[in-house]
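Weekly puzzle thread! Below is a chain. First person to post its structure in token form gets bragging rights.
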Amino acid sequence: PHSAPKLPSWQRLRQNDCRMPDSKPLSLVERGGLGAAAGIFTTFFTHPFDVIRVQMQVGVSGGTIETTTKLARQGFGALYAGISAAWLRQVTYGSGRLGIYAYLLDADKSARAARGETGAPSFAAKLGMGVTSGSIGAFIGNPAELALVRMGADGKIDDPAKRRNYANSIDCVLRVAREEGFLALWNGAGPTILRAASLSGATLAVTSEAKIAISERTGWAPAGAPTMFFSALAASFVANCVCMPFDVVKSRVQQAAPGEYSSALECARTSVAADGVLVLWRGFVPAFVKLAPYTVISLTMLEKFTALYTGGASAL
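Winning reply:
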């Protein structure tokens, strides 16, 4: 009798989703901690691009090169202004975004296994998980996002007397709550959540789907560096195209003085009227230059940290 033909590796990958061995799924807290660790590790490489992006978005800018040159002349510290806010952001937003997404993937896999189903969730399901995790993470992390924007933009103010001069991210959060009211910590929450929903939905879903597609066509390991690089690169470009208008409005609302804008919509209208519709994509280059390596490094490290913690499981 003839034995059943062995499936090609890419078909076994699609069928099994190549994610987790048969073991107890990680808890939401564990997933969040691994996501935060991966995000904090990544900020050491990508934070200068965030500073450049914010300074371009909140004021009149001559472009990426001019902003970068100006910051470089101010010294190494200027490129890492607000790094403590970036760490706080990863502990709140990053842990929620990556942790909840991986947790939802686990829950989906367990539910399908209980029904006797195999295979990966659909792209639409992954997109929904990305939007959900990004939205929740953004709401939790909005105070840290506000601190990141304000501390990153402070150096752009020419008059030293008008600078806020926050000592660190915690000082920024406490001062905003004390001087402007507790709810001011959620200024710009609307565009922040919309940005995170579109960014996370595109980045996480496209990365999850692309790494399977690339593995199918190349035979590369799904969590290998080449696969993660090309899948995350494609996801980063798509995500930036979609989320940049929300990002620009978010940055301007969070940097604005109290009462400067009555709503995010007014900020968008005012910005477009003054600078044209392309202002909504201002800072695209540093945002993409940052997001591409951030996505590659953070998701790769999330895979590595998860594998080390579990003894071989995959995060995404």
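Puzzle host: Confirmed. Bonus trivia for everyone else. The chain is about 70% helix and 0% strand.
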